[in-house]
């Protein structure tokens, strides 16, 4: 399962990358919005952890652009309490989930990522099954 | 106080609130990093521990300084717990300040005044160096008042902060030994209505005689330059009056200062 983490805080990128890699994900990180879009266009990712307050191109615009490339991407917004209102807007735009910084409990971070991974797997299976059935029809 | 004075006062508080919000936001990211890194170390330690234990069994003569491998592993987990609980404490302080710095607007709801007072004491514990200078004497059961929680907390935080500054002025380095603040809460009946008073008293230098009549006016301060610009008590008085209560300096013969907040208790009616 491929994960892209987008946050302008390098310490958070490093520590979250390590955590998710120990949980079994393949993780790429970037602290730059433009780079995030370029990577996404090039590689595609199943799950994106996206800080809602990014400089240059903010988190909500990034969310829209990512989903316009691949609407099925599981985008999890990371936000501080100050930006909770933006999270509701992100939900309207298609974000799957949110995580509130600072993370009270890393196990819940793992659970949220795990649920996103399970959704991706389920939809992939359904898609493959649908293709299989339509080809046998 | 005229309208212009009030506007200047609230503008100043808005600036402080905005500053506190910004500080809270800036602290969140490093706290996030700390917690994630602690979790990573814990997870790796879970993997390394059996390997280290096997090595220790095979090399009983080896140690880390004066610690056996078993003890070192135990101390390592304790250190991680220490980091985690310290970051939780920082988060709590940040959360309290975010609540404190939140909008001064908001609804009046039924709240437990005991919780408000306890929260305010907790928020200001750093002002007293974390020591046990503040004695809290509050009821075990709830005391319900109709109020804006954040505004009330601002009042008590202001009174406690003033008390801490007064104690530091009088006692300096010996404040933790000699300083005393008592926050007590009592209920009383006045003309058939139930009231609660919260008394914040300290054994500091007290309010100078020539300022006692004007202590609640804006820009009156007993503090040295740079330590508050004298709008806290004025705003506190306005807040309590808006809540239908009273705030006054009780002029008693004891050394120090005694501020009294009186609020009407929610009337409970079987008819709702």
Short description:
The complex is a heterodimer of chains A (137) and B (272). Chain A has helices at 10-22, 33-43, 59-69, 84-93, 106-136; strands at residues 2-6, 26-30, 47-51, 74-79, 97-100.
Question: Can you characterise this structure?
Answer:
The complex is a heterodimer of chains A (137) and B (272). Chain A is of the alpha/beta class and 137 residues long. Helix content of chain A is 55%, strand content 18%. Chain A has five helices and five strands. Chain A has helices at residues 10-22, 33-43, 59-69, 84-93, 106-136; strands at residues 2-6, 26-30, 47-51, 74-79, 97-100. A five-stranded parallel β-sheet of chain A has the order 2-1-3-4-5, with helices on both faces. In chain A, helix 3 links the parallel strand 3 (47-51) and strand 4. In chain A, helix 2 (33-43) runs parallel beside helix 3 (59-69). Chain A is globular, with a radius of gyration of 15 Å. The model of chain A has no long low-confidence stretch (mean pLDDT 88). In chain B, a hairpin with a 7-residue loop joins strand 6 and strand 7. Chain B has a five-stranded mixed β-sheet with strand order 2-4-5-7-6. A two-stranded antiparallel sheet of chain B has the order 1-3. Chain B is an alpha+beta fold and 272 residues long. In chain B, helix 3 crosses helix 4 (149-171). Chain B has helices spanning 3-58, 69-100, 113-123, 149-171, 175-178, 232-242; strands spanning 109-112, 134-137, 144-147, 181-190, 193-202, 246-249, 257-264. Chain B is elongated. Chain B is built from six helices and seven strands. The A-B interface holds A 9, 11-12, 15-16, 18-19, 22, 80-82, 101-104, 106, 109 and B 21, 24-25, 28-37, 39-40, 43-44, 87, 91, 95, 98.
